[in-house]
Amino acid sequence: xxxxxxxxxxxxxxxxxxxxxxxxxxxxxxxxxxxxxxxxxxxxxxxxxxxxxxxxxxxxxxxxxxxxxxxxxxxxxxxxxxxxxxxxxxxxxxxxxxxxxxxxxxxxxxxxxxxxxxxxxxx
Length: 123
Prior knowledge:
CATH architecture: 2-Layer Sandwich
Distance between the termini: 11 Å
Low-confidence stretches: none
Structural class: alpha+beta
CATH topology: Alpha-Beta Plaits
Mean pLDDT: 87
Number of strands: 6
Number of helices: 3
Strand order of the largest sheet: 2-5-1-6
Number of domains: 1
Radius of gyration: 16 Å
Helix content: 10-25%
Shape: globular
Order of helices and strands: EHEEEEHEH
CATH class: Alpha Beta
């Protein structure tokens, strides 16, 4: 099993969620986060409200932090490449700020309600 951690633009979450559901991957965790990459923020990317002053902290013409979404999905080894390819297809614009994908090994999973373990717990 693998955990696929993805940091993407907020406006791409619904399209990503729908595309993963079509692959048979309906479960994910999504968390609003603030961050930045090498580009030091993208002017004009933000159209939502955040704590006063957080977006005005400019550096080198960019923002200190910009809103992103952190998605985490645990998949079987055989689904890993399909999920990564789908995330890239939905989120790749060729512009700064498209995001990142991290793939981490998962040793085990347990479903608390049923005691299912391993891949049974994630399906």
